[in-house]
Amino acid sequence: MRTLRNLVAILVMLTVVRATGAQKKEAAPAHVPAPSEFLGFQVGGDRTLADYKQIGSYFRALAAASNRVEIEVLGKTTLGEEMFMAVISSPENLHNKARYKEIARKLADPRGMTREQIDALAHEGKAILLITCNIHSTEIGSSQMAMEWAHRLATAQDAETLHRLNDSIVLLVPSLNPDGETMVTDWYRKYLGTKYEGGPMPYLYHHYVGHDDNRDWFMLTQIETKNVNRMVYHEWYPQFWLDEHQMGYTGPRIYIPPNADPVAKLVNPLVHRGNNLMGATMGWRLEEAGKSGVIYGYSFDAYWPGGTRNTGWWKNMYGVLTEVASAHIATPIEVAPTELQGGQKGLITYEQQINFPNPWPGGVWRLRDIMDYELLISDAALETVTKYRPDLLRGVASMAEHAVESADAAAYWRIPTEDQSDPVRAARLAALMAEHGVEVHLGADKKSFMIPLAQPYGRFADEMMGIQRYPEVRPAANSGILEPYDVAAWSLPLMMGVKAEKIEAAPAEMPSPAPLAAIPWPASGLNGTGKYYQVADHQNNVFALINAMQSAGGQVFLAHKSGEMTWVIFAAHPQLAAEVERLHLLLRARADLPEGAIALKPVRVGLYKPYIASMDEGWTRFILEQYGYKLKNIENKEVKAGNLNAAYDAIILPDTSRSVIVDGRGGFGEGGGGEEFPPEYTGGIGKEGLKALREFVENGGTLITLAGSCAVIPGEEFNLPVRNIFAAGEGGRGDSSAPFNIPGSLLRVNVDTSHPVGYGMADQIDVFFDAPIAFQTSPPPAEIKRSVIAWYPENSKDILVSGYARGAERLERRAAAVSFTKGKGKVVMFGFRPQFRAQTEGTFQLLFNTILWAGM
Ligand SMILES: [Zn+2]
After folding, report:
1. Which residues contact 610 (CB under 8 A, 6 or more apart)?
2. Confidence (pTM)
3. Predicted confidence (pLDDT) at residue 162 exceeds the cutoff of 70
4. Ligand 1 center–CA 247 separation, angstroms
5. Mean pLDDT value of segment 689-701
6. What's the confidence (pLDDT) of residue 562?
7. How far does the centroid of ligand 1 lie from the alpha carbon of residue 205, in Å?
8. Contact call for residues 276 and 316 (beta carbons, < 8 A)
9. 72 DSSP β-pair partners
10. What is the C-alpha separation between 793 and 319, in angstroms, rounded?
11. Which residues surround ligand 1, an ion (CB under 5 A)?
């Protein structure tokens, strides 16, 4: 009884609170705790960090106490954490959230509206500002700052803040990588007070992709990227995206827009004008507050579409990157004036310039400084979007209109659904475009996906579908070109090995009027009834099916005849039909096995994992897991212990350097350079490890080396007649004056399709090349068989397909991938990365084939 009465009382109270609503709370606000008060320690203090659970609990408390803050769940993370954002605005705006989302969506796609209607919406709408923090987990300041800034917005009573909250809706994501936030705070706390305090972690701070979580924004392979992509391009349509990062500690204190050169052709220049306006406000407010070391036009280009806000530029969205100098996580760092340096695009020597009018003089730099700079720029961002609110809203609409009007109404990208070597990949490409908010139609003949360029996101689609020609911008007449910030090519049809064509003239076949709500998969199933079912091997999902059926105890065979199609044949099995449906494959029944079919053994794959974390290791692990491979990571200790054949049939060395593998030195650590790891994480595989790998091959194992790790092969341990034609360090990244320079481009290679690694591939394919590696082999002794699996064309003019290449003639007729066999033992070396960032679906099969070959 008493319980019931209490319950009734509570219900009555709740009803009263709901009914009187916002006003009552505003008049007598509940006590809204500050982050330090709530968490019981000094947020932003030296050697103090809030972890993701604490950040989450704070934001939930804030939302409970303030009617200006709501929490929205974005989804789960890779490791199952809840990923959330705070929605911050006036109580009235939050109450009318649905209406403001609708306005933002209409302005992002203003087709069919009059100028007056757009103007009216630009006045009625609120500026939607998305601020994302901490995608790079060691860049931890913004995740802490987010709590303080949210508290400030939730409690301020001054007229200016109230006005800003009335004119805007802030979407604040305290961490774009919650799993990494947890890893970094755990690691930091574990070594606090030791000599390893503030040092780097020996593993990736995203379960799969580490720092490359900010290279995933056009391919959308990771859960976190997908979560945010859906919120941005299908739900909230923010006009402005500010992404807050940190950089090294020996240069400027903060980078703000304008970006550095070069600039992408297809991005509407109004994007940069808006970005620069925000940058100017940030610079102004920082300087006014006495903050030195502010730079613009530095390092970060306006060309590459792979990072958070950049992708939005092609979708008529303003988007700004900021980078504040780091400390050692939460441990202060002292930088001597003599240690300050430039050396980057936009600041070659560390001295006063017009884009850097007030250099930081050196001294102590701490987490609190990072957060103070970030509070100022977050305020400046909000100030900018509210001051120019109708202009920015109208700007988005006018850019969308311009994208539609400037495109040829009869121009389309056409992806045929038939005549593809892998129709699933073609459907995946169409589905990826749709996931980006691009309208994809079905052709009238029902045999193609059609992407009209005359649509609001038409320029994004064109950028992704077309080829790149990196602009040669030079700072001076005789200097080298400005290097790209990241890679120079992202042509998705080439990366994914999908046929697509741009139809410039009026198409013979017009698409269906409405965009597809869902992308249809190719026909799948088991055709006929038999003891066996066969499928051509040139589809990536066939490898997933092999793995699935082998796991289920099914029998799988391979039939290859020179000059003919290679078939994978599955014995009838109760699970086959369901797996075939899941993987969208079409198999044909047959009565018996063809002559010469060989039984495929399940292959035990070991993936080497260095302590100087390799993002390529993470990407490789991600892809292999996606395709159902049973793989295990191998660390130094296990390699050194030898007897590797007992546990593995194939061992993959992911892209890293010889010195990382052998000595555990060099390469790019994620937490900064030069620091030491705790003893259990130091060193590499050493001489013993090299010997163990050699014995693994001698005893019949398959060693697969990707790009940089190919450097372990030449030398006395393996004694194979192969060398990289590029000397160490030659034409490395960032060396724009080197005569050889190919910074992440798609190159054409010829393939030996009679080699098991080349089975099912086209005679010519496009591969992703981003490190100066090409092989010169020589005839081996009799007991060794050497094969050139892939090689560059004879004429350098035929080598570059998309991106940038200087000195491509060096690659003429050189080997791109080679193998050596001795008995059952095999070494397969790829100079390029067949699985680059899970983007190069067109060449995954080279890796899958190699693993299959290990079992033959
Ligand atoms: Zn970063």
Report:
1. 617, 636, 656, 660, 661, 664, 667, 684
2. 0.94
3. yes
4. 7
5. 97
6. 83
7. 12
8. no
9. 85
10. 40
11. 136, 139, 245
